[in-house]
Amino acid sequence: MANKNVSVWSSISFWRRSAAWVTGFAAILLVWLTFDSVGQISMGTDADLQKAVAEKKETRRVPAPTVINYKIGYAMDAKRGHEVPTIGEKELFFGKEWSEKDAAALLHLGKLTSQAKNCMDCHTLLGNGAYYAPDLTKAWLDPNWEKFMYFGQKTKEEGIAYFLQHPAKSGVHTRKMPNLGITAEEAKGLVAFLKHMSSIDTNGFPRNFSKTVNQFKTGGSNAH
Amino acid sequence: MLFESFTDVVPSFFGWLNQGPMTLTIFLHTLVILPMFWIYQSEKKKLNSK
Q1: In chain B, which residues have their Cβ closer than 8 Å to the Cβ of A61?
Q2: Model pTM greater than 0.90?
Q3: Does the beta-carbon distance from A13 to B32 stay under 8 Å?
Q4: What's the pLDDT tens digit per position in A193-213?
Q5: CATH superfamily of A41-218
């Protein structure tokens, strides 16, 4: 082949082939990534959850709605370098154990209410929303609820439900939540929604949740 | 660290890809940039034989 001193850089067909390759490859990768993400964020079943509790090994990022029947914790995972939700022993939720169907219905009501009342206008849920009010992703685990003695209610879930129905009366931050006219049933749904959300493995999001909790415990503010 | 141990909750290709900053870089350079050298050479050959 003779060296004809050709210019590949100014050849249209070189750029066309390169662009087709890069675009095509990126498209395939993104379609694959989409299906991979869908698989990881789809909700597990009650059977998955029971197996995870029995083996003390979490295999689903998003557990079944029946997770509201269990104690949710948050523990540092040294290997992963951030905190992960833990699912402990059973505990009653609003005084009863919820069946798979009832738990799913309650969670659905909570989700619809969170959308109808537009929580994201001020709060952040799983990374979506605003930071005018506290992040709700791990709100169920917030020590504020204990500190304020569940607003005179017996359990944490009843305390949060009470707060949601009487937010201005029981404001814990300098910025008070407005009264959104949440009914008792809707409040129950929202609490289930929050408890379930705190059990989702979010790869340690929101970052440094425990750090702010510790700051709060030593007298600092947890309103951020 | 160039490669870090896989610690994600669900083993997946994209989880592996995202473990450290270098894994994604090496992967993209291998699969995107290297074939462009081949495209370059084959275009050069085509232009030379015209």
Answers
A1: 9-10
A2: no
A3: no
A4: 999 999 999 988 888 787 666
A5: Cytochrome c-like domain (1.10.760.10)
